[in-house]
Structure formats: structure tokens, C-alpha cells
Amino acid sequence: MTATTYPSSPVPSARATSTRRALKAEWTKLATLPSTWRTVAMTVVAAIGFSVVATAVQASSWATMSAQQRQAFDPTSTSLTGLWVAVVILGALGVRSVAAEYATGMIRATFTAMPARALVLAAKAATAAAFVFPLALVCDVVSFELGQRILAGKHIQVALSHPGTLQALIFGAVAASLVTIVGVGLAGVVRHTAGAVSALAMLILGGAILGQLVPAGLRQYIPGIAVQAAVTVHRSAGLLRPSTALLVLVVYAIVALGAASVRMAHRDA
């Protein structure tokens, strides 16, 4: 008699199991914090509100614009102006996912349950980015639609099917996710909410404002300028191509996470 054999079910590796546990734990923490949902509300108000105001101002100034200004006018990026403020708020969400645990001492319990600190950091970054992307995308779409209704009064609106427009909306959401990852990394280095949020705000808003003092060749690589480039359809001098701008933000995210990982590995919580 021959014994019947059955193929054994694949046993998940210890690393895969640890990764799932880390992702589930971080997602639960993020989704159950009241501050997370306050951040969602602030993001929606800021992203859509600033975008509507900026678009209305531009529309009211259309009659006084020069021919050159009208030619360079970008209806899509104008209607997404609020993204600049929104990415800082969402980046602060990434900051709090790390810094809040250091402030309360909960990070010790996290590292006890999950000794692989680099895995914990990666899980925090992944869950924060995954949470932010759909929220930012919805804000982009709503801001765009409202903005184009305002611009329609001057007959300068564009449709979603306009070349580059859909890409700008998606790239804007990706940029927000990458800035959130930068926030996670900064918090891992600074370990203080106010300090990390201030550093992030300087990178995005301060960089965009003070970037005019930086040589044009370097200015385009400033994070805040890269965010602007990611949602630009009518590319102008001093701005990277949208895809290149996202790559720049990817580099910032990698550097921030790398620095945080090194600090976590070499310094106790």
C-alpha cells in the first residue's frame, strides 16, 4: 500500500509574519487616535479652502493680467494651491505617529513587542502614507472641481480630461504621501513633535518662500518647490518635470527614514 501525500501548505516566513504584525499594529494606532481624525478635518478645510480662495483671487485678477501672464496661467495647479498647506498638516500626522510615542514612553513597549526597530519605522511610514494618499486625492479632486467652476466665469477652466490634469491630481496625492514619510523620518531623528513639525514646515513652506534667494539651479530641488512642480501642467522655468519632482521627494523620504533608522539603532528609546 502506498501512502497518499498531500502538498503541504506554505508556511509564512517569520519576517513576513512580523511585517504583517507591525503593519496591523501601526494601522490600529493611527486609525484609533482622535488626533488622526482632527487632522483629516483640518486637511480637508485647508486644502479645499485655500485652493478656492487662491483660485478666486486669480480669477478676479484675470482682466488685469498681461498677455504673458495669461499664457503662463495654469488652471490646474492654481486650483490645487491648498496642497502646499495640506502636505504640512499631513506631514505632521507622520510626525505624531512617531514623536507621540516617544513623548509618552510608549515607544519602549512598541520596541519590546517588535524588537526590529527598522521594521517598526518602515511600518509607521507605510501606514501613514497609505492613510494619506486617498485623503489627499479626494481633496485634490474636490479642489480641482470647485476651482474650475470659479474659473469658468472667465472661460479659462479646463476639464479633467485635459492633458496632464489627471496626472497632476494623482501626483499631488503621491507628493503628500511622500512628505508624510519625510515627517515620519524627521520625528525619528528629532523625537519631539514641535521640533519635527517646525522642521517640516520650513522644508515645505519656508523653502517655497525663501527659495527665491537660492540660485535657480538649486531652487527646483527644494521640497516645497518640488511639491509645486508635481502638480504643474504648464511647466515653466525653474520647475522640474512632475515625474522628476516626485523622484526628488522620494530621495528626501529615503534620506529622512535612513537618518531616523540609524538614530533608532544606535540610541535607546
Outline the structure in words:
The protein is mainly alpha-helical. It has one domain (17-266). Helix content is 75%, strand content 0%. It has twelve helices and no strands. The protein has helices at residues 14-32, 34-60, 67-72, 75-78, 83-104, 106-113, 117-151, 165-190, 193-210, 216-219, 223-230, 242-266. Helix 5 (83-104) packs antiparallel against helix 7 (117-151) and helix 7 runs antiparallel to helix 12. The longest helix is centred in the middle third of the chain and has 35 residues, at 117-151. The N and C termini lie far apart (61 Å).
Protein traits:
single chain, 12 helices, mainly alpha, 269 residues
State the gist of this model.
The protein is mainly alpha-helical and 269 residues long.
Number of domains: 1
Largest sheet: none
How far is the first residue's CA from the last residue's CA?
Answer: 61 Å
> What percentage of the residues does DSSP assign to strands (E)?
under 5%
Whole-number average pLDDT? 89
Ranges with pLDDT <50 over ≥5 residues? none
The number of helical elements comes to 12
**Apparent shape:** elongated
Q: How much helical structure, as a percent, in the residues?
A: over 70%
Would you tell me the structural class of the helices and strands? mainly alpha
Radius of gyration: 22 Å
Overall number of strands: 0
> What is the H/E string?
HHHHHHHHHHHH
List the SSEs and their pairings.
Elements: H1 14-32, H2 34-60, H3 67-72, H4 75-78, H5 83-104, H6 106-113, H7 117-151, H8 165-190, H9 193-210, H10 216-219, H11 223-230, H12 242-266
